[in-house]
């Protein structure tokens, strides 16, 4: 049961949000070295990727000889032996901007540990993201752990709170983290097909935050250009600032009250908009970071004429 919101406070009140990192770090090249972790392959059978080869080596042997850090090789092997797509995690390399990497990896590690200790995944994530926590203090203070983290993450990245695009970004980050904490057929099915990991994401180590970029083409492009992931990350700052989701209504039009929890959530129409990748676009200025982007990702041209974007 959902109740439509009528009216609302149009003033952003985001001073209560605890930021997780400073966007300025995207320009200074700070990195973070992750610790090794042990992965039990158990009785897993190899996946459909098993036909891949590294030169004359079988794929599994090629992983052990590919010179990636041990933590990356362990993730690759885990995915190689996974039985199902929903069980194949992305291959993050433990590097990247210090605070962003730690903010993601530490939260994921903590949540998985809580689940191991008996916590119910839905108690940690909620059954939907509390996107209104971006500008509603009451929603923020009562949000489940992962909803609050997603709000902190996106606000740290965009510094825009009263924005449909920021709420959409919270939704994407939440749905990805929810699956990574609790990988099941259902949490994987809830991912839009465009945010599900590509083959490169599964087997080629990359920075954590890349997994939340909406376009598969974009993610694969950056993975195939590893120089973009180390040192200055102006392309990431430009992406988080220049992304937009086209929503014709107001913020209030996008939200309703969930009958079970009493929390604000996206309406079915708003969520359908977010799930439509054609509604997502990048600023025209992004062409400078990714040659050949036209035809692969929608690029806005209206902003060049001074049209205000939401």
List keywords for this structure.
310 residues, mainly alpha, 3-stranded antiparallel sheet, globular, disordered C terminus
Brief write-up:
The protein is mainly alpha-helical and 310 residues long. It has helices at residues 59-64, 70-80, 98-116, 121-125, 137-142, 145-158, 164-181, 185-189, 199-203, 216-223, 234-242, 251-254, 268-275, and strands at 2-4, 53-54, 57-58, 244-245, 255-258, 264-266, 280-281.
Task: Please write out the topology.
Elements (H helix, E strand, L loop, with lengths): L1 E3 L48 E2 L2 E2 H6 L5 H11 L17 H19 L4 H5 L11 H6 L2 H14 L5 H18 L3 H5 L9 H5 L12 H8 L10 H9 L1 E2 L5 H4 E4 L5 E3 L1 H8 L4 E2 L29
Helix and strand composition category = mainly alpha
Number of strands: 7
What's the rounded overall pLDDT mean?
A: 79
Instruction: Indicate the low-confidence ranges by residue numbers.
Output: 5-12, 29-62, 304-309
Q: Please describe the biggest sheet, giving its number of strands, its sense, and whether it closes into a barrel.
A: 3 strands, antiparallel
Question: Per DSSP, what share of the residues sits in E-state strands of 2 or more residues?
Answer: 5-15%
Distance between the termini: 29 Å
- Main-sheet strand order equals 1-5-6
Based on the structure, what is the oligomeric state of the protein chains? single chain
Rg (CA only): 20 Å
What is the H-and-E element order?
EEEHHHHHHHHHHHEHEEHE
Sum up the overall morphology in one term. Answer: globular
Instruction: Please estimate the helix content.
Output: 25-40%
Domain count: 1
InterPro entries: DUF3425
Pfam family, one: DUF3425
């Amino acid at each position: 049961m959902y109740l439509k919101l009528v009216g609302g406070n149009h003033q952003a009140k985001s001073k209560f949000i605890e930021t997780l990192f400073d966007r300025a770090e995207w320009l200074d090249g700070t990195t973070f070295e992750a610790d090794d972790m042990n992965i039990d392959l158990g009785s897993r059978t190899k996946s459909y990727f098993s036909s891949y080869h590294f030169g004359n080596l079988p794929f599994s042997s090629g992983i052990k000889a590919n010179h990636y850090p041990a933590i990356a090789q362990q993730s690759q092997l885990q995915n190689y032996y996974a039985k199902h797509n929903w069980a194949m995690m992305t291959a993050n390399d433990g590097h990247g901007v210090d605070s962003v990497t730690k903010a993601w990896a530490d939260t994921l590690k903590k949540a998985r540990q809580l689940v191991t200790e008996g916590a119910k995944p839905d108690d940690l994530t909620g059954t939907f993201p509390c996107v209104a926590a971006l500008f509603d203090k009451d929603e923020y203070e009562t949000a489940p752990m992962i909803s609050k983290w997603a709000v902190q993450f996106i606000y740290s990245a965009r510094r825009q709170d009263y924005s449909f695009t920021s709420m959409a970004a919270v939704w994407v980050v939440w749905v990805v983290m929810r699956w990574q904490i609790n990988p099941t057929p259902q949490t994987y099915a809830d991912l839009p097909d465009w945010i599900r990991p590509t083959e490169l994401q599964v087997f080629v180590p990359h920075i954590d935050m890349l997994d939340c970029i909406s376009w598969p083409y974009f993610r694969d492009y950056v993975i195939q250009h590893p120089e973009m992931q180390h040192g200055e990350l102006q392309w990431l700052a430009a992406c988080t600032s220049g992304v937009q989701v086209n929503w014709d209504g107001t913020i209030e039009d996008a939200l309703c009250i969930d009958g079970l929890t009493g929390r604000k959530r996206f309406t079915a129409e708003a969520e359908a908009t977010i799930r439509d990748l054609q509604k997502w676009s990048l600023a025209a200025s992004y062409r400078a970071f990714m040659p050949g982007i036209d035809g692969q990702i929608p690029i806005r041209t209206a902003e060049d004429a001074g049209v205000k974007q939401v």
